[in-house]
Write a structure and sequence with these properties.
The protein has 123 residues and is an alpha+beta fold. It has one domain: Nonspecific Lipid-transfer Protein, Chain A. The chain contains four helices and five strands. It has a five-stranded mixed β-sheet with strand order 3-2-1-4-5.
Length: 123
């Protein structure tokens, strides 16, 4: 892979925020753990300014955990919300954190998916 993990995380996050614009102004720190062969890379992601740094996010409200190859596949194929949802449902990506934040994010994403379905049905 020619791009480093920070660039890929930033690209994935910007694509996600394009799909779910209601989350753009949310102030949140997310910890991302990418498991590779024998090591784990830890990243700190800050919203709303979309800042990604390779360090431990000790103050993160939400933690995402996945294998590096799963992350690479999702990002390189330009995964949209349905692909990410599938990865979460099948346990390839795990999210933990403060319950209120988790519920809020899930609720906003579900509402955006419903809006997208409604727009497609009208056309």
């Amino acid at each position: 892979m020619t791009e480093d993990a920070t660039t890929l995380i930033e690209r994935a996050l910007r694509a996600f925020l394009e799909e779910v614009p209601a989350l753009r102004q949310m102030s949140l720190v997310v910890g991302v753990d990418l498991h590779g062969r024998g090591d784990t890379q830890q990243f700190r992601v800050e919203l709303p300014q979309v800042s990604v740094r390779r360090e431990i996010a000790s103050d993160a409200r939400v933690h995402l955990e996945m294998r590096r190859d799963v992350f690479n596949d999702l990002v390189s194929h330009g995964a949209k919300i349905p692909q990410w949802r599938d990865a979460f449902e099948h346990g390839r990506v795990k999210a933990t954190g403060v319950d209120q934040y988790m519920k809020l994010i899930v609720n906003v994403v579900e509402r955006q998916e419903e809006r997208n379905r409604t727009r497609r049905a009208r056309h």
